[in-house]
Known about the structure:
Layout: E1 2-4, H1 12-39, H2 42-49, H3 65-112, H4 129-144, H5 149-169, H6 181-190, H7 205-222, H8 229-250, H9 263-286, H10 294-300, H11 303-310, H12 318-326, H13 330-333, H14 337-358, E2 362-364
Helix pairs in contact: 1-2, 1-3, 1-9, 1-10, 1-11, 1-14, 3-4, 3-7, 3-9, 4-7, 5-7, 7-9, 8-9, 10-14, 12-14
Amino acid sequence: xxxxxxxxxxxxxxxxxxxxxxxxxxxxxxxxxxxxxxxxxxxxxxxxxxxxxxxxxxxxxxxxxxxxxxxxxxxxxxxxxxxxxxxxxxxxxxxxxxxxxxxxxxxxxxxxxxxxxxxxxxxxxxxxxxxxxxxxxxxxxxxxxxxxxxxxxxxxxxxxxxxxxxxxxxxxxxxxxxxxxxxxxxxxxxxxxxxxxxxxxxxxxxxxxxxxxxxxxxxxxxxxxxxxxxxxxxxxxxxxxxxxxxxxxxxxxxxxxxxxxxxxxxxxxxxxxxxxxxxxxxxxxxxxxxxxxxxxxxxxxxxxxxxxxxxxxxxxxxxxxxxxxxxxxxxxxxxxxxxxxxxxxxxxxxxxxxxxxxxxxxxxx
Length: 365
């Protein structure tokens, strides 16, 4: 891992969307939950309910966070991959892809796999979003080496259909928590070294790759030469609508299950990711309204560092720091105190990464 200024040109809407994604896992969801605690009305309860993942079948706002991380990886991959192939050749590209895959995997084990416990019995080999990104990134990178987009589409569609068929038509298995094929395979391979028993990883690598590839296809549209921005926007928006319709149509046969990363969930979440990208692209790149996105951009440029240090308060708890700064106001703020603390934590997060951005310091792998 290295910390150095970014040299390549970036598309601001992608950085802003990545930062938007980071906000929710670094304190945004907590702020909405605390808003509901303060007001306690039907509207705030509706919002607060969206800050939790669906227990099994269904889809909430928080269910888009992990797919969006993978999707944006695919968008960015198009920009970096093309340049690397032109300047470094396939051999060095392969080396970079494998290196990045292992670093992401290792960081995932450090973050959630208990690697730093140094106790064999506690280590989980595959349990984290970064590892899902690693697998999706690896698969998408090899698919990208198929230079013709039509073959990229064929392989991606094949992975989606194959996962759907295996999960729905393998004899003796269903889509329940304890009876599905994907978790059965994980239990056989990892035994006591698997994380949450409701989340499969090995077989789901097929749809992780599909999610990253949906970002790649959006990236292809964004990098189209001699195409006006408004036309790119129309294509991206249409792509998002079609994916969403296809996903909800598939739910007539297969339920939308985020924990299994079902094919229907892959299409629905992918559709929403594309539509979010089209919204950010419309406002930032087409309409040229950029100032509002600055807080998101500084987080998006350093997303890996945001995730490793501040996501879910796993390593650094900004909420606890904010509470130490504001504890004197607790008596006066009453039920509003938790919300104010949450907002202060987000302000601290922004201040840290605004400083890093001004210093042109970005953590990359």
